[in-house]
Structure formats: C-alpha cells, structure tokens
Amino acid sequence: MECTVRWTGLSGMTFLAETGSGHVVAMDGAPEGGGRNLAPRPMEVVLAGTGGCTAYDVVLILRKSGQDIRGCDVTLKSERAEKDPKVFTKVHFHFVVRGRNMKANLVERAIKLSHEKYCSASIMLEKTAEMTHSYEIVDDNAPIQQQ
Prior knowledge:
- This protein is an alpha+beta fold and 147 residues long.
- It folds into 2 domains: 3-33, no CATH class; 42-139, GMP Synthetase, Chain A, domain 3.
- The chain has 3 helices and 6 strands; from the N terminus they run βββαββααβ.
- The strands form 2 sheets. The protein has a 3-stranded antiparallel sheet, with no helix packed on it. A 3-stranded mixed sheet has the order 4-5-6, with helices on one face.
- Helix 1 (42-64) crosses helix 2 (104-118).
- It is elongated and about 55 Å long.
- The chain starts with a strand and ends in an 8-residue tail after the last strand.
C-alpha cells in the first residue's frame, strides 16, 4: 500500500493525499494553525478511515452470516490527549444496523470480530485509546425499492 501526500502551496496548510489506488483526499489544518478549514483535519481522516474499515467488516460478516442487512451507519466519538502527540485516548463506536429480521447476537458477533480480528485501523488505535461500542438494530420490513 502506498500514499503520497503533497502540500498544495506556501499559503495555508492544505495537503492532498493520493492513494495507491489513484484516489485523492484533501486535508487542511485549523485556522489557528495556519489552515483555512477547506477540508477535514488529518486526524479526522484517521477517524473516518477507522469507521469505514469497521463498517465494511460488519456488513461483510453479516452478509456471510446470512443476515438481510440493508444499511450500516457507524458514528465515532473520540477524545484526544491534551499534549503532543495528541493521540486518540478514547473512541466510542455506535452502529445503527438496518435490515430484515436481524439477529442481535450476530450483530454483536460481527462488531466484536471486526474490532478484535479484522479492522486493522481500530486494532492500531486500540494501542492508545480505550475502545467502546454500542449498537442498535432498525428492523426494515419494507421491500427494497427497485430503480
């Protein structure tokens, strides 16, 4: 895996990251640090990537478990150390899983497997942060709309 990050110029603190798969992610700093608030902060991107990593796992595990999953949202709330390096010290993941006749034990298992075995991002963050999880299941008995 590879990524190149480039500072966009002498004014401001905007950076563009180009991933090995050819995608571009913009990042910027806070105004008090010389940024212009044009894009997410780098640590916000770390948090978003962790959310994407674990949501991906949960959906995949639930599908493989035969669950009729129709949606998965995860909200991450974090705290950071006050002094440099300002690592994450706490991260709470709240999942909202939508589907038909979802089994709570399988949702719990999917979240646990993601955080203990598959999601490399959350496993890395766990080295500095206390990780907590919660979830809710929304029963979606409406048929899927075909477009």
